[in-house]
Amino acid sequence: MQGEGETQLADTPVPEGTFEYTGVVGEFNSAYQLIPTQLGDLPLRFAPTPRFSQVQEGGATVEVSIRAVSLEGEGTVSVSAAIGEESTADDTDITGFDGSETFTFSKGDSNPKALSFDVVSDGQEEGVERLEIILSSEDGQVGEPGRFTLWLLDEGEPAVQSVIAEGDSGDVLIDALQQQFADPRPLGDDFARDSMYAVVYNEEADTVEGQYSGLRIEVDPSEGDPSTIAADKGINNEHTWPQSKGAGDEPATSDLHILVPARAEVNSARSNFPYGE
């Protein structure tokens, strides 16, 4: 089923038209690969859907679907959902869920189970809080990441996410993104270096540390040009994306995402060689 000349599955002719299929589907080189398997070959595991969400205090009811995958055989299995220790929120921030609940599945009752609760408004400004609901079970595996993460926003807080191009696609979407986020004005190499030494990598006591060697020097912007001070003390500007691979031209030359301070000797030895050369 991978293409012409491939061995047919289990010496059985490939079905024509629409057919039911159980297995793993993968796509590579614009073609499809089907790997048949039986449900009994897969271990029992549990998973929440969705994996994460966000809601403002006093907002809509939060619903999480707990699923049992590859449920085979007789008898019952169970999985527990509990608020994790990593949470910055707790059961006082919600109603309808006391912090722990167990769900039971069987072959005759395999439908997903619903965990639902409401987020209460406590009237306090706490910023963004996080509620982690962790799954655990002695009857089967818990699929990664095995948790549901809820971000709680203070009532009246602006949404963490906002719609920037609703319904757009193709060239229209590209144009919308370009209009909102493109055409950045690079600082220029001199200003970028000064910003790197004076702000981005300048720690307490006006200290700058080399990215690879750990060499630490003092760069006090009030005493002069930061780039000149750094150069006089043996620190140069390193492009972690080699200039020979495109970082030699603007705006990449001044892109602070790929600029780091490094010992002058290291910078010279690295030259413009790509990594691995």
What does this structure look like?
By secondary structure, this protein is α+β, with helices and mostly antiparallel strands. It folds into 3 domains: 9-37, no CATH class; 45-153, CalX-beta domain (Immunoglobulin-like, Sandwich), CATH 2.60.40; 189-270, no CATH class. The chain has helices at residues 170-181, 189-200, 226-232, 264-270, and strands spanning 23-28, 31-36, 45-49, 52-56, 62-69, 76-83, 94-95, 100-106, 113-119, 129-136, 141-142, 147-153, 202-203, 207-209, 216-218, 235-239, 259-263. A 5-stranded mixed beta sheet has the order 7-9-5-3-11, with no helix packed on it. Strands 4-12-10-6-8 form a 5-stranded mixed beta sheet, with no helix packed on it. A 3-stranded antiparallel beta sheet has the order 13-14-15. The longest helix has 12 residues, at 170-181. It is extended. The model is unreliable at 1-8 (pLDDT under 50).
Helix and strand layout, with pairings?
Layout: E1 23-28, E2 31-36, E3 45-49, E4 52-56, E5 62-69, E6 76-83, E7 94-95, E8 100-106, E9 113-119, E10 129-136, E11 141-142, E12 147-153, H1 170-181, H2 189-200, E13 202-203, E14 207-209, E15 216-218, H3 226-232, E16 235-239, E17 259-263, H4 264-270
Parallel strand pairs: 3-11, 4-12
Antiparallel strand pairs: 1-2, 3-5, 5-9, 6-8, 6-10, 7-9, 10-12, 13-14, 14-15, 16-17
